[in-house]
Design brief:
Blueprint (H helix, E strand, L loop, with lengths): L1 H23 L5 H14 L4 E7 L4 E7 L5 H12 L11 E5 L25 E6 L4
Parallel strand pairs: 1-4
Antiparallel strand pairs: 1-2, 3-4
Length: about 130
């Protein structure tokens, strides 16, 4: 009987340790999913990798886009990826700029931006939160 009373807490402690290790590192499973999606997307052809940076907070994410990908969908994906998808922040308040020219926000489709394979001359977009006053 004494052996059963000692064994049960040990089993519970081991189960809690396994559960804690699976959830302790936030996002450990997400990159693997993102990588597999990236591979599938690249096999489809006409897929380009871009960087999207929120320069005000120093955060950056990579995205795979096609010529048909809209700037509005990039804003939505970037908000989710960078943690800016709170309901009190309107998507319309996020403006997107090319890294080379932050004087004018861009819109439309990525196909209008001279897409090319990622490299030193690849496309980097800056997303900025600029609410209307």
């Amino acid at each position: 009987m004494a052996q059963k009373s000692v064994l049960m807490p040990l089993v519970l402690a081991a189960a809690l340790c396994v559960l804690a290790l699976n959830t302790a590192f936030v996002g450990t499973q997400q990159p693997a999913l993102r990588a597999s999606r990236s591979r599938v997307a690249r096999q489809a052809g006409d897929v380009y990798e871009i960087f999207v940076t929120a320069s005000s907070v120093g955060m950056r994410t990579r995205m795979n886009v096609t010529p048909e990908t809209t700037i509005a969908s990039i804003v939505e994906d970037a908000r989710k990826s960078l943690g800016f998808d709170q309901p009190f922040l309107d998507s319309s308040d996020f403006k997107v700029y090319r890294k080379e020219d932050e004087s004018t926000p861009i819109g439309g489709k990525m196909g209008d931006m001279e897409l090319k394979p990622w490299g030193p001359e690849g496309i980097e977009l800056h997303v900025k939160y600029e609410p209307a006053v």
